[in-house]
Amino acid sequence: MSPVNVLVVEDNPADQRLIAEAFRRYNGSATIYVVGDGSAALDFLHRRDKYANAAVPSLIILDLNLPKKSGLEVLKELKQNPKLKSIPVVIFSTTSIEEDMKHCYESHANAFVTKPSELDAFHSAIKSIQDFWIRTAQLPKQ
Questions:
Q1: What pLDDT digit, counting tens, does each position of 65-118 carry?
Q2: Rounded CA gap, 23 and 141, in Å?
Q3: Domains (range + CATH), the chain
């Protein structure tokens, strides 16, 4: 399995830590980058300012409820950019509102996973994301 760069866009420090820990537990070869708001995510993806030397992610784990720019705004901008639109985006959010899911899929999210509140289920959800997107699916070279 070749190394994978994962960008986690999450404003909750506890969830940031849990996601990173779960990735390390289930896939030691993944390099995890974390940003805490939508504007920082776009700066990272466009390699602006302090992210000028940022790695191009192989996979993005994106929360919807973010400060500065929402996850949906990030998703829309990302998927409109020819250089970035092939990066798979998994929405990982506490919302399970049908309309939110519909908007995400219409904006070309690759998957929508409702973030569990229970710790074991949370780890299981991250493991499932990894099993599919890192172990099963073939990701394009960026």
A1: 999 999 999 999 999 999 999 999 999 988 778 898 999 999 999 999 999 989
A2: 20
A3: 4-136 (3.40.50.2300)
